[in-house]
Amino acid sequence: MIDKAIEFATKVHEGQFRKGTSRPYIVHPIEVSDIVATMTEDEEIISAAVLHDTIEDCESVTAEVLEREFGPRVAGMVALESEDKSKTWKERKGATIRFIKTAPREVQMIGLADKLSNMRDIDRDYPVHGEELWNRFRMKSKQAIAWYYKGVRDSLKDTFAGVPAYEEYCRLVVKNFGENEEHEPE
């Protein structure tokens, strides 16, 4: 099933790149699935991790398509992990921070892995691009990005404290955004 998910995601993400880079987008969902695989051997969760951005970022993909291809459990996890793009950035990110705190554990795993992959990209690119890096994001604000990643960290603490992926995430958040508390962006 994981191989099928990788093939599917590679096809539907074709031509997409990581924000502000020439890196093919598919490297992100593959990394997310690799991180999830450090927390579980459940092939459906790992497959959902590979597919986590398909509903959100690929016009041809719906929950129904994923259910037909991968079953209701995988489709359900991807749907729960997907943001409503009709909302503003602040509304979407605030909803994610609130939802992930009480989401099913498998959805929390995918969310953690997704954000850890993003933080690895930030950690790799920030020393190279400096403050210019924040311009590749919709909010173009380090403070807003910090608010979001710290909010996710705090929401996942009770469930994942001590888990290596979570601990790495926390280290990268502090390294790139500092320890101080961030206020919700205007």
From TrEMBL:
Its domain of life reads: Bacteria
Keyword entries, A-Z: Hydrolase
* InterPro entries to which the protein is assigned, alphabetical: HD/PDEase_dom, MESH1
Q: Does the keyword Hydrolase apply?
A: yes
Q: Name one GO molecular function term.
A: guanosine-3',5'-bis(diphosphate) 3'-diphosphatase activity
Under SUPFAM superfamilies, the record lists: HD-domain/PDEase-like
Q: Name one Pfam family in it.
A: HD_4
Q: Where does the HD/PDEase domain start and stop, copy by copy?
A: 21-128
**Gene3D superfamilies in alphabetical order:** Hypothetical protein af1432 (1.10.3210.10)
What this protein is called in its record is: Guanosine polyphosphate pyrophosphohydrolase
Lineage, top ranks: Bacteria, Bacillati, Bacillota, Clostridia, Lachnospirales
